[in-house]
Amino acid sequence: MSDLTTQSDRLIEEGRILARDNRAGGRHRQTGSIGKGSAKLKMQHWTRKLVRIILAIGAIMVAAVAAGIIIGGIGFTGVMLTILAVIAAIVAFTVFPKMEVPKRADLNKGDVRQMVGRTELWLESQRAALPAPAANIVSEMGVQLDTLGMQLEAVEQDHPKTHEIRRLVGEILPETIDSYHKIPGHLRTEKRAGTTPDQQLTESLGNISKEIDAVTRQLADGALDDLAIRHRYLENRSSDEEGPAA
Fold this sequence. Notes:
This protein is an all-alpha fold and 246 residues long. The protein has one domain (27-235). Helix content is 75%, strand content 0%. The protein has helices at 2-23, 36-71, 75-95, 112-127, 132-152, 160-181, 197-242. Helix 2 packs antiparallel against helix 3 (75-95), helix 4 runs parallel beside helix 6 and helix 5 runs parallel beside helix 7 (197-242). The radius of gyration is 28 Å and the shape is flat. The N and C termini lie far apart (104 Å).
């Protein structure tokens, strides 16, 4: 009886959560890419699919032509079978292989620039299960991660900041979302120590977003300093050339 009561209470609480989310605009249902990094990975996936489809159709057509040469024509039945084979290949390679979302354990591996793109793709897969305010921050992070990725194009892999980026983007960010997912749904809106898990997640993601922005600005400072130095050099050189002749 107690188990039934507990289950009923949980269902009622989850119903309240759903009603609250609907009033707030619902859970974040956007399905588009949050940034260019994840969009690029998805485009690469679909490009590989298209290549497989083209190769499969080519192989089917070659087989049909070869069969026609050997047996003196494939006839109406052969043409229909060829068309069906082409359709089957298109359907099969359109559906399979499916886009694999990077696993949590693989986010922080390899090149730091690739890590940023993988994290974007992973965040997209998590977004729908987050409360609306947190999901909005995740969507905005896509632009931040794109900008960070552009900054990293000119940064060596052993740059001191890359270790900070790995820690922030490849560890702290996904760990924060993982910790939230471990909390049962009916407890995510219950206050504890004056705040709820939903609020804590939103605040934590907001702080991470600020940290990403700060790191990006620090990387940009180096480029800005280089530009200022070159500008001063050109100004000084121009002044020397325009000075009075001896």
